[in-house]
Design brief:
Blueprint: E1 2-12, E2 15-25, E3 28-34, E4 43-46, E5 51-54, E6 56-61, E7 63-64, E8 67-68, H1 73-84, E9 88-95, H2 100-116, E10 120-125, H3 148-158, E11 162-167, H4 174-183, E12 187-190, H5 197-205, E13 210-211, H6 227-234, E14 239-243, H7 251-260, E15 265-268, E16 280-284, E17 287-292, E18 295-298, H8 311-320, H9 326-333, H10 335-340, E19 358-361, E20 367-372, E21 375-377
Parallel strand pairs: 1-4, 1-5, 6-9, 9-10, 10-11, 11-12, 12-13, 13-14, 14-15
Antiparallel strand pairs: 1-2, 2-3, 5-19, 7-8, 16-17, 17-18, 19-20, 20-21
Helix pairs in contact: 2-3, 5-6, 8-9
């Protein structure tokens, strides 16, 4: 089966092409072009002048649709379904701090699912190696310093599918843990930290390559103490995560981040179970969360507990409120996260040889349809169907 998308306004990190067409054979893009001379195909899809962009990639997400990624395989699939319907075709599944035994179980479950579903890119340990003072919505009882034997247990449980680990580099043993993870090809992120500008620089020099949700759960930018955000802005090796929901980071600050680190901003959701669902009471790991008007906080506090964001909303906010150029906003959802995970040879662009992950958007940046690995994502099930 071949599928021809035609009459599109293509937009990816390489820029915009009008009257774009794309031929898909199986899971891959096999030809692209522009104009009215079209190749033969088993099926034709008229994009009718709407936007066609690569599938979104989320580096940092905890759940959605009423379900959390640490609640077992069925909950994971239902949470992913909610995000796939909003254009996120590939996801890294993030886990909050929990007892080591539970994290081992969660990592093993994710490894099983990733083996069966290429849209699941692997796991992200956001905890437990975080600073207590900057723990955010992580249970302080489960935070710990990285110990070699526990790190080895977690790595073993992930069976090669741990994509990212967030670490506060000031913890005893943290810099040595960074060395171990980098040696294994696991992306290290600096986050939930009290790190100074200089310590963040040292972590990046040792191989850390991501800043976890910039500005949140870390020192801010001070004129005499620039902190980890400025260290990440200055280091062209580092990808900067940004939660652009209008609540975690002001749109004007988001615009500053895009200007300070062009091509290195990755828009992430950090979404918890309420994303794509409704206000109410939820759990994030072992903690209770209350969601009112889309704002998730630890129950009885003002501490933000993840987001209720989906990536299509982040795209609209980037373009409409932060005034980010559409090409840069799309890049932050596609090519940049792919590059951070070192999978940009197959994902993040609409070009020959790449996976046929594509999102159709109307002129107001609303998702109208989604394809993943060449298959239509059904809006009712939000899972690839033949």
């Amino acid at each position: 089966m071949t599928t021809l998308f035609h009459g599109a306004r293509k937009l990816d990190a390489a820029g915009q092409v009008d009257d774009f067409w794309m031929l898909v054979d199986g899971e891959s893009i096999v030809a692209t072009g522009s104009g009215r001379v079209l190749p033969d195909a088993s099926e034709r899809i008229d994009v009718d002048g709407h936007w066609l962009v690569p599938g979104f990639i989320d580096l940092h997400c905890h759940g959605g649709g009423g379900y959390s990624f640490d609640d077992g395989e069925e909950a994971i699939l239902l949470a992913l379904a909610a995000h796939r319907a909003h254009g996120t075709t590939r996801s890294v599944l993030s886990l909050v701090a929990n007892p080591i035994a539970q994290l081992r179980e969660n990592l093993s479950e994710i490894a099983d699912l990733a083996a069966a579903d290429p849209l699941i890119l692997g796991s992200h340990l956001e905890g437990p190696f975080l600073a207590v003072e900057r723990r955010g919505a992580h249970n302080a009882d489960f935070l710990r310093e990285p110990q070699p034997y526990e790190l080895e247990e977690l790595i073993s449980a992930g069976r090669g599918t741990i994509r990212q680990v967030t670490i506060a580099p000031e913890l005893p043993g943290a810099l040595e843990a960074i060395d171990v993870l980098v040696e294994l090809g696991i992306t290290v992120a600096v986050g939930h930290t009290e790190a100074s500008f200089e310590l963040a620089q040292e972590a990046f020099d040792r191989g850390a390559r991501v800043l976890t949700h910039a500005f949140n759960a870390m020192p801010g930018i001070h004129h005499r103490s620039p902190g980890p955000v400025v260290a990440a802005f200055e280091d062209k090796r580092v990808t900067v995560e940004l939660i652009l929901d209008g609540l975690h980071v002001h749109p004007d600050v988001a615009a500053m981040a895009f200007n300070s680190a062009p091509g290195r901003i990755a828009l992430v959701t950090d979404a918890m179970a309420a994303a794509g669902s409704s206000d109410g009471n939820y759990r994030l790991g072992s903690l209770n969360v209350t969601v009112v008007d889309g704002l998730a906080v630890l129950s009885g506090t003002s501490t933000i507990a993840g987001s209720t964001l989906t990536q299509d909303v982040a795209l609209r906010l980037a373009i409409e409120r932060a005034r980010i150029a559409p090409t840069a906003a799309i890049e932050a959802l596609t090519a940049t996260p792919a590059r951070a995970l070192r999978i940009d040879d197959r994902l993040g662009h609409l070009k020959v040889g790449y996976a046929a992950d594509a999102v159709m958007l109307d002129h107001r940046w609303n998702v109208t349809s989604v394809w993943a690995n060449g298959a239509r994502v059904d809006r009712a099930l939000a899972a690839p169907t033949a």
